[in-house]
Amino acid sequence: MKRLRAGVIGVGHLGQHHARHYANLPGATLVGVFDAEPSRAKLIADRHGVQAWTHLNDLLQQVDIVSIAAPTSAHFATAKASLEAGKHVLVEKPIAVTPAEAHELVELAARRGCLLQVGHSERFNPIMQRMRSHIERPAFIECHRLSAFGERGTDVDVVLDLMIHDLDLVLSFNPGPVEEVRAAGVPVLSSNIDIANARIAFASGCVANLTASRVSTNKMRRLRVFQRDRYVSIDFQTRQAVVFRRTLGSGSRPTIDVEPYHAGDEEPLRLELESFIQAVTTGSRPVVSGEDGEAALTLAGLVLEAIGQFTQRHSEDHASGVASGLENV
């Protein structure tokens, strides 16, 4: 089987691991890397014995596929240039900053006959892969994604930085069209929103409640799904899960059966890149397509819009209350 020539655009905290895997995966050969900081590109390139390219277009002329792990604000321009060059693209989440940008990338990939995959790596977490068959027609979904503050990712709101993972997961359960979105969020340590909560109601009757924070003391990555006959609790960090099933006992009252699960220590990113290579090689639809990335980003946009409305409404209420108080002085 022909090995695909791979390049990595952006070799910071996450991109360096894309390079590491391409250098070792069967089916791909790491050709080189590009980064906005040439010294960083050289460091990672030297680590794998490949070339650090100083011009993006030069790298694109040498590869079949690229991973884009640059800052979110650079996703659109970089992915557009790669697709226009006829390259298959895996772009880290979120696919872009705005739904309009995402839609343009999806259409461009279709016109150029290129595969576009989005790096929602939680789909490839071994515990998620193992538990997916247990999730059918959710009635209520609860997600918590919390982490300590760090500079990485703060070029966008926490909704695009962290919550986007869970928005994609929720949509992957096929809850149907969105009916209503309510949300609130505030900046704490950055100029963007650092903690947010969203309540999303779907036409099917399913409701999802999501909390994302990058200013927490404890790290948490949990998903809970409530269904008519079972409750599924997943911890992405420990890769453990529990399924609580309602069964009819010998008496008139139902009982609860508890069944624990655990998954292996495979790296989700490696599984994701293997899936990308297979999709390109076979011409099959990627597990997380450009359309999936666009859908998650569109829903993220609705959450941010709801946060803006909530903030404006309460700011106006506060201003009105202050004015009323002054009138009584």
Ordered list of secondary-structure elements with their pairings:
Layout: E1 4-9, H1 15-22, E2 28-34, H2 38-48, E3 51-53, H3 56-60, E4 65-68, H4 75-84, E5 88-92, H5 99-112, E6 116-119, H6 126-131, E7 140-146, H7 158-172, E8 178-186, E9 195-202, E10 207-213, E11 220-226, E12 230-235, E13 240-248, E14 254-262, H8 268-282, H9 290-327
Parallel strand pairs: 1-2, 1-4, 2-3, 4-5, 5-6, 7-10
Antiparallel strand pairs: 7-11, 8-9, 9-10, 11-12, 12-13, 13-14
Supply database-style keywords.
6-stranded parallel sheet, 37% helix, 329 residues, 8-stranded mixed sheet, globular, 28% strand, Dihydrodipicolinate Reductase, domain 2, Rossmann fold, alpha/beta, single chain, 14 strands
Please characterize this protein's 3D structure:
- The protein has about 325 residues and is of the alpha/beta class.
- The protein has two domains: about 5-120 and about 270-290, Rossmann fold; about 125-265 and about 300-310, Dihydrodipicolinate Reductase, domain 2, CATH 3.30.360.10.
- It contains nine helices and 14 strands.
- The strands form two sheets. The chain has an eight-stranded mixed sheet. Strands 3-2-1-4-5-6 form a six-stranded parallel sheet, sandwiched between helices.
- Strand 11 (about 220-225) and strand 12 (about 230-235) form a beta hairpin.
- Helix 7 (about 160-170) crosses helix 9.
- The radius of gyration is 22 Å and the shape is globular.
- Residues about 320-325 have low confidence and may be disordered.
